[in-house]
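PROTEIN–LIGAND DATA SHEET

This sheet pairs a single protein chain with one bound small molecule, S-adenosylmethionine, given as SMILES. Inputs appear in the order they were entered. The predicted three-dimensional arrangement of chain and ligand is reported afterwards as a token string under its own label.
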Amino acid sequence: MIYEPQEDSYLLAGEVGKRARGRVLDMGTGSGIQALTAEKSKGVNSVTVVDMDTEVISFVSSMRFEVIESNLFENVLDKYDFIIFNPPYLPNEPRDPQPCLDGGLTGREILDKFLENCSMHLEENGEILFVQSSLTDIKKTEKKLEELGFEYEIVAEQKIPWEKLAVFSCRLKKK
Ligand SMILES: C[S@@+](CC[C@H](N)C(=O)[O-])C[C@H]1O[C@@H](n2cnc3c(N)ncnc32)[C@H](O)[C@@H]1O
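PREDICTION REPORTED AS:
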């Protein structure tokens, strides 16, 4: 299923438009909204999109991006200057799996796995931009980022009736 852009997509895209640069990777591209936004930014050299959903892969194949079908970074070999992710974050309903919404049993599984594997695909001084919902514990994400050696800031926030959305910008701490 192709995720129709919603508040989370637009909040993230607002920051992507201001910050994207260099070689960009759009993880979980869905409709391609983040990739299409990044492409318009002045300092962007190339955009690669990733998704695990075959319907999404055929949809974005007609766009001008490099397309990788992959479960997170499994089939991603390169490093990037700017990595974007609007992860699925609803606790799983195992009988009716929907990759565009399901974040595993706790709702955090996809985001946590993404963060754990991100640094291997990030150029020195590279930036990660992702969305986090208050439904899956923003404080836990801050703790996870510290454990993984990232410095971070929340660069955008939005309150909607049932949750708060935050956009995190992260970079690896200098050694
Ligand atoms: C909430 S949608 C976001 C779509 C789009 N980037 C946006 O901002 O509107 C999450 C996307 O992540 C993809 N996805 C979910 N789990 C994934 C995984 N393990 N690896 C790659 N993509 C995944 C889904 O198929 C879906 O397209």
